[in-house]
């Protein structure tokens, strides 16, 4: 028999310190968890974990505060950017971020996100676009794809009466006070790595006081899409990415020229 | 000496979603159908040799359930 | 007279549907009935249960502390409801998944290897009907024939091919309960 | 129509459709989501308006728009969502246009939870919005009643150019019961003479809630108050059970009323002379009936799924004629018949002379003791 | 400090600043706009936070954010704007964080007008938001009192981790009177042990209003209710004038209280034994005091700038001990002393035996007759 | 003495039928009146006056319903697009329009305008951008220019803490369901004529069911700007137009190819 | 004792400031005082008025139906307030703009050509102070010297060069009132 | 025959804002300082001949206070 012995072993990856020891309530394979992980890893690497204040929103991520090992508040539906404003204005040297779904940010919270961005609040927004209302059981979101069936568009989103998906990264990019607005996806390792880089850039921009930063992440909802976790990733790649092109919609010069001491 | 690795699965967190299984470039992972986690899922495991410690599995894991190790591989005959 | 039934198990074990079958049957039988799920925030996984109350007059509270009968499809459900079944009530235990003896002596307990029976009948999803059959025999809450008619009347037509197997499941469950209770006397 | 086994949320939605609701605007929220989903499926197929609004604020203002056209319109939500509607509700009341709101209440305050509760009584009955206005508030206790009151709500809203609220709770929304739906009503032809319709050939019409001169605003307020006197005179609804010979009368609405009914039956079985008064219209409140009851019984015992909100109305009605006791569960906990029975026993064996009943502090003590013992 | 001639809105703003308010978030609305404008000028020069929010919904949620950090924070608005805050208020109450709200009420319902009114009593005192929560509500009747109560509001909010409301009306906001501002308080160093501060070296903190398990939510509710018992025990405030030998007691708050005072003086001059009870804390309400008063006088006469909202609290307190009469003006009309005097004369010459006083219908009749005669 | 006699006289311009006989409450020289006139003239010319439903908003134009001789409702602050949605959905063949100020549309009403546009509601929005809150006495609006003094930015709008002006015509143009989004100005006769053409196009688009149309109009507020009416027009031309460039930000092909029977 | 004064006119006639001068003087004189404007929706144009109440005890209502004194700076104001002045009260009429005789006999009426006097003193904006002077003489509500000191104390320093003209305006108004009332007796 | 025109000012509406005065290409308008409208403004008027009926004044008038006429101009000696 042949056995393998491994020497000089070192840890290549481990659960981020920024996480508590609780198991999430997310469905198996839901990429909300991936997004959480990237945020936690980033704050760890930047040494910001103990200097951060997170603002959880209302949606499947309502309990995200349970999973991040840092100070957290829980906002009303859609109002996380306003709540973050109230915090950041009195604690300007903390890393303040919101974590919001597409119903939260792009539907009920449209005014708050637009104005936080318009004011150039020096906060970071992690925006989970899964094209659906996860928590309430699969209703149409402002980002639901045309023709996509949801419990409130049972025959598929009818663009005549229910409109077209909103592309938030592009919309926010039109605002002068935004320093960073990009879209990434969580459907495969390469894209996940890019997403993490973007999250890092966003927090770095905040650390330097460059103003509002937002990372939109295309994310899955296996449960309400009625798919396996794997098929969900394929759906992101094949259906969502074409409708929500990945890319940098706004990166101001000050952000472009940031030198990041990579962790 | 060739590089080698292995993973540890924290069964408290693993939900058996199989995203890592598909992502693993070495195809060395699979669900352990004989085990159930406390939450009632079949956890993932290394079912065959060949892990390189590349950590791609950890990159895709939504639950941060994996720890990845890497080291120098020594083949020892018995 | 009023019978309160709680059906409890994992999500996916057909808990809610089993309760609805009872509710339909009660309605068709001209009785008063309420069906109420416990609804939680988790989309998948976790436990599920529902309370069905059947009575011959207008039903008051749709929830009760001490139900007359409990179907426990998994261990956490048994742990939760064993202490709560009303004295003299019935406790139907899915012994396929629950390897555990009930301690209480003041309730009628029936152990039903429901998963095994269901698999033998060709479909794991019949587990809930096996348990319902046992419940009917153990409590007499509803007439078996009414339940079968209700199944037929309210199961969507495309599922009608599954009716015979469902009937068998009900009957087998009932049979087990009858035997168990006969023995107990 | 034959009885069907219906979930409360779907039943209310279908009842609204059959009552001729021509437009629905809403925003998803548990535990009323099935109501919106039912509308999403049914309204478009009937050629009627369904819009999933961007928020409850938008939903109520869409409702406001349709209400101004005189067409039957409704929205539904649950507690936090209803809070977001209060400005719009005040506008609608001030503009004197009819609408129906279904509030399927959940545990609060704040985000709270999605369990059944009755914590929005004050918000709905006493006006969560600014200014003086009153809404008609109907509280069903069964799926059948939820259907009937939904239909009634449309009629009353129209009759009094007012807001009519069906105040349900999560358990009513989620529960299934056999119930009979009404026939589909034909849509009304024509529109009221105040409706904004953009029709040619008549003088323009205007609907607004701004009256810059205080005197003009007061005139509107007087009109609203007078109309409310009519509502009070005509629209009081309630159910009495076992009250004829009762020493103790429970007062409870909605799901709490059902729970109370079970407890009353148990108490009767133990020989206690207790009955149940269940207000169906919370607003207008059955003031005269409770006043009369208070002068007949030894105690009133109010049971609610909140910290005692209807309690004030009962006390106001009772006017000191007898002590008013209270038992409530909060935050989404549904009281069980056994607990209420224990309260009946307490009141029957330890009657208090204090008009406020056992004090609020004592209630909290009992509650905590009971919880600890669970 | 010497007295200055101060406008109510500016006085409350400056008082808040001197009380150590570190952040203000608001949205313009008449008749409170000078308050926001004062903050816009002063806060930035003091290095404190001022944001003109995009709406009242955003404003209250910004307040919520700062409140979670334990720093003194406030917002202000007027009736329709306050309605938009009700969801946020319920969240803040449920999260148990302190804040101050100034509501300078105007005529309603709906858009209404910008004249002084008291139509938000129910909304503020009984909770315009969903779920069970109580706010401390203080009603000043002069610019000096507006200053003092604003400072007090910050202290009480902090003491009870609650919402403290200064409930003023348009005339108090717009009126100038000599008044003395307090000294500038130094900002508090350090933060409470529950505050979210993102500080290293201690276990993480969490502030939320969601308690998914009904039992946990109930525990929170019990805590809130118990805390409210403390508030009721400690924080009742009121003013009594000419009550020692009074046969008739007027009950009125804020501007209506001032008008009542004038009328009482005129009535005394005519030899009528009448006095004034002016609740300063509307919530907690001076229940015991009014109960006691009701057992001493022949009648209570409630005067409000609304359709009778505090009236219910007075009746609840009086518990049938004497008839409770009512006179109100609505929609932004400020009653004049002469009208109130006429009501005193009516009550003193035609006392009624009905506990509800002259009925609501009779009040409306009198009101319309009086208006016609104007 | 020489006198002039005029023959074959005809009326070249008269007060539109679409106006009632009431005098406005607007300050002298305020171009709110101009905008009103253009709308009234357009509806007259299109024969729509008696088939229109106007939605007044909260702002100086709160009483606009008094001046237009047609059915009108009065919305809550910022919610006119939602109210218009409620009307249009049950009266799809009426010309439904909102008339909103910049505080109303771009501040408190941001979510409602974005979503009415996102749904492609077939309504027309007349948006009066006067860079200020007129009615409440001159506070900062989302469109207030950087450095501009208002009663809530007494030292001038500070872009660091109060953000940059929002350009609504551009923002709405990014939404798929918008058929027409343009900016015009009311500061001189030529621009007023162009503004009217745009209003005509917008209503024509609505008549043909082409979806959401919006005309942003740069407008004056002599009172709160503290200027004469004339100086105010110069301010529009010299300060506002550079910050809010005039132009067509979105004109879908179906609108471009409309043939209008010009009145 | 309490004196209620209403000052009414067009926006731009210095109505609100005139009231504030009285309020400052009352405060400086150790009296109780309230000043309250009527505030309307129109930004420009329209009428403006304010009510000032001066008393030696805490002031109740800040508004009254029947004020002890009214300054009417234009015709609409006179029309509105003539019937309301308390019996025996004072009615100060700006005769420069109001070509109209007061009908009531139970009030003391003083006609003051305030615009003319103001223009003669070199500044139209002094109209309000002329009327205030007349009011002081007609009612004795406040001591002239206290009002002058109040003006000095509360007028921003940059306007102090206008003080002498303001004093003159007050004196001239007072003189006219004294003469008119002496005649009337 | 040359074209000529004139305007009618509805004094109920005119607020004397002078926008028309500046806009008039012929410079024939001015405020009438001797008159006051019911709202208290000096209304605009034609103070000199030369109106062409071009209606530019009406285009800029915020109050729709102007009616513009045009016709054939005939010069008549007296
Ligand atoms: C005011 C209010 N309205 C509605 C809800 C109900 N609600 C909870 S989560 C949610 C939608 C969440 O969807 P999204 O933001 O996309 O998050 P996801 O669950 O998809 O991650 C809604 C509508 C609420 N809690 N509060
Ligand atoms: C909910 C609410 N908040 C605030 C107000 C007060 N308010 C009235 S008009 C207005 C601003 C109007 O500004 P804008 O929309 O720019 O119109 P403008 O007056 O400049 O034409 C505000 C804040 C209100 N009526 N309702
Ligand atoms: S419902 Fe969807 S978004 Fe929510 S946890 Fe499950 S998979 Fe994720
Ligand atoms: S570390 Fe790489 S090779 Fe090893 S299991 Fe993970 S993905 Fe496969
Ligand atoms: S990705 Fe993570 S949760 Fe999913 S199977 Fe692999 S280890 Fe388990
Ligand atoms: S305040 Fe400004 S916007 Fe309003 S009417 Fe006057 S000039 Fe026009
Ligand atoms: S019509 Fe032309 S020329 Fe005549 S007054 Fe008007 S702008 Fe001047
Ligand atoms: S533009 Fe109109 S309102 Fe202004 S002066 Fe000319 S006619 Fe009068
Ligand atoms: Mg989502
Ligand atoms: Mg504006």
CATH architecture classification of chain A: 3-Layer(aba) Sandwich
- Largest contact between chains: D-E, 78 and 79 residues
CATH homologous superfamily assignment of chain A: Thiamin diphosphate (ThDP)-binding fold, Pyr/PP domains
What integer value in Å does the Rg of chain C equal?
A: 15 Å
Task: Summarize this entry quickly.
The complex is a heterooctamer, with two copies of chain A (263 residues), two copies of chain B (78 residues), two copies of chain C (185 residues) and two copies of chain D (374 residues). Chain B is mostly beta strands and 78 residues long. Chain B has helices at residues 19-23, 56-60; strands at 3-9, 29-31, 44-46, 66-77.
Polypeptide structure, described:
The complex is a heterooctamer, with two copies of chain A (263 residues), two copies of chain B (78 residues), two copies of chain C (185 residues) and two copies of chain D (374 residues). In chain A, helix 1 (32-45) packs across helix 8 and helix 4 crosses helix 5. Chain A has a single domain (16-144, 165-252), classed as Rossmann fold. Chain A is built from eleven helices and eight strands. The longest helix of chain A is centred in the last third of the chain and has 19 residues, at 189-207. Helix content of chain A is 37%, strand content 21%. Chain A has a seven-stranded mixed beta sheet, with helices on both faces. Chain A has 263 residues and is α/β, with parallel strands linked by helices. Chain B is mainly beta and 78 residues long. Chain B has helices at 19-23, 56-60, and strands at 3-9, 29-31, 44-46, 66-77. In chain B, the strands form two sheets. A two-stranded antiparallel sheet of chain B has the order 1-4. A two-stranded antiparallel ribbon of chain B has the order 2-3. Chain B is globular, with a radius of gyration of 13 Å. The two termini of chain B are 19 Å apart. In chain B, 42% of the residues are buried. Chain C has six helices and six strands, in the order E-H-E-E-E-H-E-E-H-H-H-H. Chain C has helices at 15-28, 75-81, 114-120, 127-139, 144-154, 163-184, and strands at residues 2-10, 32-37, 47-55, 69-72, 90-94, 108-112. In chain C, helix 1 crosses helix 5, helix 3 (114-120) crosses helix 4 and helix 4 packs across helix 6 (163-184). Chain C is globular, with a radius of gyration of 15 Å. The two termini of chain C are 24 Å apart. The model of chain C has no long low-confidence stretch (mean pLDDT 92). Chains in contact: A-B, A-C, A-D, A-E, A-F, C-D, D-E, D-F, E-F, E-G, F-G, F-H. The E-G interface holds E 3, 5, 30-31, 114, 142, 170-171, 174-178, 255, 258-265, 334, 336-338 and G 20, 23-24, 27, 32-37, 39, 41, 58-66, 154. The complex binds thiamine diphosphate (2 copies), iron/sulfur cluster (SF4) (6 copies) and magnesium ion (2 copies). One thiamine diphosphate sits between chains F (58-61, 77, 101-104, 128, 130, 132-136, 141) and E (27-29, 56, 80-81, 84).
């Amino acid at each position: 028999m042949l056995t393998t012995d491994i020497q000089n072993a070192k840890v290549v990856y481990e659960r981020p310190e920024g996480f508590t020891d609780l198991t999430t309530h997310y469905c198996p394979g839901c990429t909300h968890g991936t997004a959480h992980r990237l945020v936690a890893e980033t704050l760890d690497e930047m040494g910001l974990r103990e200097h951060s204040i997170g603002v959880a929103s209302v949606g499947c991520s309502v309990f995200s505060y349970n999973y991040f090992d840092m100070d957290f508040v829980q906002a009303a539906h859609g109002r996380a950017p306003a709540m973050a404003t109230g915090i950041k204005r009195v604690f300007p040297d903390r890393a303040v971020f919101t974590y919001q779904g597409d119903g939260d940010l792009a539907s009920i919270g449209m005014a708050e996100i637009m104005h936080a961005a318009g004011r150039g609040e020096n906060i970071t927004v992690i925006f989970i676009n899964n094209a659906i209302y996860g928590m309430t059981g699969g209703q149409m979101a402002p980002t639901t794809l045309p023709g996509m069936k949801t419990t409130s568009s049972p025959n598929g989103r009818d663009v005549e009466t229910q409109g077209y998906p909103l592309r938030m990264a592009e919309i926010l990019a039109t605002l002068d006070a935004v320093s960073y607005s990009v879209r990434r996806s969580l459907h495969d390792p390469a894209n996940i790595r890019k997403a993490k880089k973007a999250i890092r850039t966003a927090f770095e921009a905040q650390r330097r006081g460059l103003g509002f930063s937002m990372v939109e992440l295309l994310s899955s909802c296996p449960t309400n899409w009625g798919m396996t976790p794997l098929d969900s990733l394929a759906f992101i790649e094949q259906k969502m990415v074409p409708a929500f092109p990945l890319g940098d919609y706004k990166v101001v010069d000050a952000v472009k020229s940031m030198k990041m001491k990579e962790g | 000496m060739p590089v080698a690795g292995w993973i540890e699965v924290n069964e408290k967190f693993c939900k058996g979603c199989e995203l890592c299984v598909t992502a693993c470039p070495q195809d060395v992972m699979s669900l352990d159908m004989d085990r159930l986690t406390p939450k009632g899922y079949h956890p993932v495991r290394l079912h065959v040799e060949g892990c390189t410690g590349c950590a791609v599995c950890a990159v895709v894991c939504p639950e941060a359930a994996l720890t990845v190790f890497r080291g120098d591989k020594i083949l020892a005959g018995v | 007279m009023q019978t309160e039934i709680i059906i409890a198990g994992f999500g996916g074990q057909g808990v809610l549907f089993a309760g609805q079958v009872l509710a339909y049957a009660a309605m068709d039988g001209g009785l008063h009935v309420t069906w109420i799920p416990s609804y939680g925030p988790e989309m998948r996984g976790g436990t599920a249960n529902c309370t069905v109350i059947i009575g011959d007059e207008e039903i008051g509270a749709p929830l009760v502390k001490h139900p007359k009968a409990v179907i426990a499809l998994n261990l956490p459900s048994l742990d939760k409801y064993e202490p709560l079944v009303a004295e003299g009530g019935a406790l139907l235990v899915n012994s396929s998944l629950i390897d555990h003896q009930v301690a209480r002596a003041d309730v009628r307990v029936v152990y039903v290897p429901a998963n095994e029976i269901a698999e033998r009948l060709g479909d794991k999803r019949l587990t809930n009907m096996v348990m319902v059959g046992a419940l009917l025999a153990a409590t007499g809450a509803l007439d078996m024939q009414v339940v079968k008619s209700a199944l037929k009347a309210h199961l969507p037509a495309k599922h009608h091919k599954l009716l015979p197997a469902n009937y068998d499941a009900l009957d087998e469950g009932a049979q087990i309960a009858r035997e168990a209770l006969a023995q107990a006397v | 129509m034959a009885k069907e086994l219906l979930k409360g949320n779907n039943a209310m939605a279908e009842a609204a459709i059959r009552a001729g609701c021509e437009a629905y605007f809403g925003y998803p929220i548990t535990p009323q989501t099935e109501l919106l989903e039912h509308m999403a499926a049914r309204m478009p197929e009937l050629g009627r308006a369904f819009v999933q609004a961007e928020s409850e604020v938008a939903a109520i203002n869409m409702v406001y728009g349709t209400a101004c056209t005189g067409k039957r319109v409704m929205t539904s939500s649950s507690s936090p969502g209803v809070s977001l509607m209060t400005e719009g509700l005040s506008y609608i009341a001030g503009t004197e246009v009819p609408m129906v709101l279904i509030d399927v209440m959940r545990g609060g305050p704040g985000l709270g939870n999605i369990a059944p509760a009755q914590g929005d009584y004050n918000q709905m009955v006493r006006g969560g919005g600014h200014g003086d206005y009153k809404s008609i508030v109907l509280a069903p206790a069964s799926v059948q009643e939820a259907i009937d009151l939904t239909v009634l709500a449309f009629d009353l809203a129209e009759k009094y150019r007012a807001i009519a609220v069906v105040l349900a709770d999560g358990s009513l929304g989620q529960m299934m019961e056999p119930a009979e739906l009404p026939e589909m009503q034909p849509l009304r032809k024509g529109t009221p003479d105040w409706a904004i319709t953009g029709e040619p050939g008549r003088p323009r019409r205007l609907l607004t809630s701004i009256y810059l001169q205080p005197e003009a605003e007061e005139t509107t307020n007087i009109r609203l108050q007078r109309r409310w006197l009519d509502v009070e005179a005509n629209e009081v609804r309630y159910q009495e059970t076992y009250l004829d010979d009762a020493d103790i009368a429970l007062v409870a609405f909605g799901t709490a009323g059902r729970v109370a009914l079970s407890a009353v039956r148990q108490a009767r079985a133990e020989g206690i002379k207790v009955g149940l008064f269940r207000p169906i219209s919370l607003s207008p409140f059955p003031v005269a009936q409770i006043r009369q009851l208070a002068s007949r019984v030894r105690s009133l015992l109010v049971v609610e799924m909140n910290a005692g909100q209807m309690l004030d109305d009962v006390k106001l009605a009772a006017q000191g004629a007898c002590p008013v006791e209270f038992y409530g569960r909060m935050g989404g906990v549904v009281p069980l018949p056994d607990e209420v029975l224990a309260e009946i026993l307490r009141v029957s064996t330890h009657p208090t002379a204090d008009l406020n009943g056992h004090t609020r502090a004592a209630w909290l003590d009992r509650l905590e003791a009971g919880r600890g013992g669970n």
